[in-house]
């Protein structure tokens, strides 16, 4: 069983490494100090299980998982308050609250061995993505690079088949998410779904024009013009107080 440890704290990695020595069936193939290293190692070694810290520099553990096409099973190692990650319990994924004992570690390993086939990593990623920890930015792959997009840099989002195109001051990027997901997660940041295919940053709206029967369009300060449906117009009126 191939295992990778991903944690920015050398001491924490050392503890997991020490505890793993009790399991002859495991093969520790890599130790990583951040999410970027973690992604590379997962692509290289295709592990069965990773021990993943949540709070790390550059990109956090949740964001790292989002960027992996087929993520392995995960046991989280975290200093988070227990209640902050209750959402993962229903998905047969365990977490180790730092500092953790060998006994607690053993329980996590046993839980993985008993439930690894039933673990839905997609459910874990969905639960993680709704965490307040990462709602003020979006992490995307741009070729071989990873880009962190602050929410306030987004002009608008556009539906693009199974992806969402995120249009920013630095260009556009694709993210494998749904419009419904972004509509809910960005609602607190002045974003409104004005059309089934568009979510717009209301801070950039300079004008709303009538366009055909019961339809409108919005002009952004960036010069971009987007369609607004009847339902979208009602949402805009409510949000903008007009």
Mind explaining what this structure looks like?
This protein has 242 residues and is α/β, with parallel strands linked by helices. It has two domains: 2-132, Response regulator (Rossmann fold, 3-Layer(aba) Sandwich); 136-240, LytTr DNA-binding domain (OB fold (Dihydrolipoamide Acetyltransferase, E2P)). Helix content is 29%, strand content 33%. The chain has helices spanning 10-20, 35-45, 61-66, 102-115, 121-129, 179-185, 230-240; strands at 2-6, 27-32, 49-53, 73-78, 95-97, 137-142, 145-150, 154-160, 163-168, 171-175, 191-195, 198-201, 205-210, 216-220, 225-228. The strands form four sheets. The chain has a five-stranded parallel sheet with strand order 2-1-3-4-5, with helices on both faces. Strands 10-9-8-12-11 form a five-stranded antiparallel sheet. A three-stranded antiparallel sheet has the order 13-14-15. The longest helix is centred in the middle third of the chain and has 14 residues, at 102-115. It is elongated. The mean pLDDT is 87.
Structural Rg: 21 Å
**CATH architecture group name of the largest domain:** 3-Layer(aba) Sandwich
Cα shape = elongated
Structural class: alpha/beta
Task: Give the averaged pLDDT, no decimals.
Answer: 87
As for the number of domains, it is: 2
Question: What is the number of helices?
Answer: 7
What is the terminal-to-terminal distance? 60 Å
Q: Main sheet: which strands, in order across? A: 2-1-3-4-5
Helical fraction: 25-40%
CATH superfamily of the largest domain: Response regulator
Q: Low-confidence segments, ≥5 residues, pLDDT <50?
A: none
Total DSSP E strands? 15
Describe the sheet with the most strands.
Answer: 5 strands, parallel
């Amino acid at each position: 069983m191939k295992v990778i440890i991903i944690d920015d704290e050398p001491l924490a990695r050392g503890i997991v490494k020490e505890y793993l020595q009790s399991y002859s069936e495991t093969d520790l193939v890599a130790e990583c100090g951040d999410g970027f290293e973690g992604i590379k190692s997962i692509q290289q070694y295709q592990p069965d299980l990773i021990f993943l810290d949540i709070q790390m520099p550059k990109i956090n553990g949740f964001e790292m998982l989002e960027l992996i096409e087929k993520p392995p099973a995960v046991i989280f190692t975290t200093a988070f308050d227990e209640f902050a990650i209750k959402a993962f319990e229903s998905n047969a994924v365990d977490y180790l609250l730092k500092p953790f004992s060998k006994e607690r570690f053993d329980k996590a390993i046993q839980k993985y061995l008993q439930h690894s086939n039933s673990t839905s990593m997609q459910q874990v990623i969905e639960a993680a993505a709704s965490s307040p920890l990462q709602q003020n930015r979006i992490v995307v792959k741009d070729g071989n690079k990873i880009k962190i997009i602050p929410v306030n840099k987004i002009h608008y989002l556009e539906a693009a088949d199974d992806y969402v195109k995120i249009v920013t001051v630095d260009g556009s990027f694709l993210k494998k998410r749904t419009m419904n997901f972004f509509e809910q997660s960005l609602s607190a940041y002045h974003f409104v779904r004005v059309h089934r295919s568009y979510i717009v940053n209301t801070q950039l709206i300079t004008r709303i024009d009538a366009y055909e029967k019961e339809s409108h369009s919005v002009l952004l300060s960036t010069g971009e013009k987007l369609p607004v449906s009847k339902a979208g117009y009602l949402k805009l009126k409510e949000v903008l107080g007009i």
